[in-house]
């Protein structure tokens, strides 16, 4: 089967045009940026040689228009599209791509991560060079495992000093 793999142009941690897993698997990938017309590119590829599946890594970096285009790939070209990425940033805010994927996806499957306490990790902390949580900054800063850590909501709030004091 012919699967086209895409990743965000801004994410070059593992090399340009490479999707890599934490267990060491990797694949070459086509690049997208906010100006990429995914429907146009996929329609052209599909006419040249049928595409059986599309895999998008780092889908949080998609634009609203690109998510709409991917829904057209599914509906008009009849090609399944699988998207992988983060739901929220280190501030707990939705990424634009995630926002529209959550709204328009046919099916959502959450891949669970575990906090150091054993609870479901549904938040991401950004760490500075000394390992301290960062409270503000640009939404997108590309970094590896040393820059981000997945934690549960409780430990996210504790790390950022967002816990409420108990009433006396």
From TrEMBL:
Its EC number is 2.7.1.21. It catalyses: thymidine + ATP = dTMP + ADP + H(+). Substrate binds at residues 140-143, 148. One of its GO terms (cellular component) is cytosol. The active site is at 58 (proton acceptor). It is an enzyme of class 2 (transferase). Transmembrane segments: none annotated. GO terms for molecular function: ATP binding; thymidine kinase activity. GO terms for biological process: DNA biosynthetic process; thymidine metabolic process. The keyword Glycoprotein does not apply. Keywords: ATP-binding, DNA synthesis, Kinase, Nucleotide-binding, Transferase. Belongs to the thymidine kinase family. This is Thymidine kinase. It comes from Samsonia erythrinae.
